[in-house]
Amino acid sequence: MREAMASAEVGDDVFGEDPTVNELQKKCASLFGKEDALFVPTGTMGNLISVMTHCRERGLEAILGTKSHIFIHEQGGISQVAGVLASTIENNPDGTFDIDKIKERIRLTDDPHFPYTRLICLENTQNMCGGKVLPMSFMQDVYGLASELGLKVHLDGARLMNAATALNVPPSEILKYVDSASMCFSKGLACPVGSIIAGTKPFIKQAKRTRKLLGGGMRQAGVLAAAALYSIDNIIPRLHIDHQHAQMLAKGKS
Ligand SMILES: Cc1ncc(COP(=O)(O)O)c(C=O)c1O
Question: Which helix (H) or strand (E) holds 198?
Fold first, then answer.
């Protein structure tokens, strides 16, 4: 990975001129089954950019789990920075939440007492529920409800590749049920820095503006994207071995 970083071809990514970043974004869009992707410094910034891109006006509402990273561990950035109200629903032990509770929470009325609900955020794997992989049926149900009501779904997929490995499906299969997703290269994928967000072309175009606003526009970022590309080719294919090791550790075997 260090060698790939040292020999990376670079350009100014703020102007879209870094060939290694461009290659990474193209590869991730294809891997995720989305139109486009954007390299960002961290998972926290990827989530904030995604929420800000879906909720362009201040005062909109996002529904998310009480145990979600966005709610617990991102300093309330969606409220502090973006003026988005967090409406939380208790996570079940398996990381899901009850669809009926989501229905009760959604506010789409013109009554001026209420904010408009715009977004539902899921997390897969669900870190604070013990790294649980969300059942695909749950994701499908949430997406079905959101689509019916004109809401968007964002996935905090910091460990999306672990979820895909555990389910033995390509990540695009999971992401069929969300409008946007973030994924971290700097977790189990062994990179020093870097996350990616993916969605439609207009979503990523706006996300790129928001990344710059938040100070996340990087210049010769190809040295970091090269590490991410290395992880796609060399670390992701062996994630199942990490899972076997984790199972052994959990069971106390050697
Ligand atoms: C589920 C989840 N989302 C987002 C993040 C944030 O990632 P970063 O540390 O790159 O900001 C983390 C970090 O541990 C995480 O576990």
Answer: strand 195-199
Does residue 32 contact residue 171 with C-beta atoms inside 8 Å? yes
Q: Is 125 in the pocket of ligand 1 (CB under 6 A)?
A: no
**Is the C-beta atom of 44 inside 6 A of ligand 1?**
yes
**CA 158, 162, 166 angle in degrees (round to 5)?**
145
Q: Which residue's alpha carbon is nearest to atom 5 within ligand 1?
A: 43
Query: Which residue has its alpha carbon closest to ligand 1 atom 7?
Result: 43
Alpha-carbon span 211 to 139, nearest angstrom: 27
Does 253 score more than 90 pLDDT?
no
What is the rounded CA–CA span in Å between residue 199 and residue 227? 22
Asked if the structure places residue 77 within a domain, the reply is: yes
Q: What is the DSSP letter of 15?
A: G
Residue 231 lies in a domain: no
Q: Is residue 175 part of a domain?
A: yes
Does the Cβ of 61 fall within 6 Å of ligand 1? no
Widest pairwise Cα distance in the chain: 61
Helices and strands, counts by H and E, the chain: 12, 7
Domain residues for 62? 37-217
Average per-residue pLDDT for the chain: 97
Residue 67, SS3?
coil
Q: What is the pLDDT of residues 65-107, one digit of tens each?
A: 999 999 999 999 999 999 999 999 999 999 999 999 999 999 9
Could you tell me if residue 32 is inside a domain? no
Strand partners for 123: 156
Number of domains present in the structure of the chain: 1
